[in-house]
Amino acid sequence: MRTHAQLIESQTQRLIAEIAARSHHPLEEVREIYEAEFTRLDGQARVKSFLPIFAARSARKILAAH
């Protein structure tokens, strides 16, 4: 049985791969942007459960501007 942390990591990797495929940007570039946005938002967030959604949205906006 997988732990909660493993499930979150698996979901995060799928989310990053989906963003990379749809945006036609390299996976590593998307991962770096996503992780930077997640870290930035994590410092401000009071409710942590929505962080992946907001980090993904922010990463998509940044990639669209490139």
UniProtKB/TrEMBL annotation:
Q: What is this protein called?
A: DUF3562 domain-containing protein
Q: Which InterPro entries match?
A: DUF3562
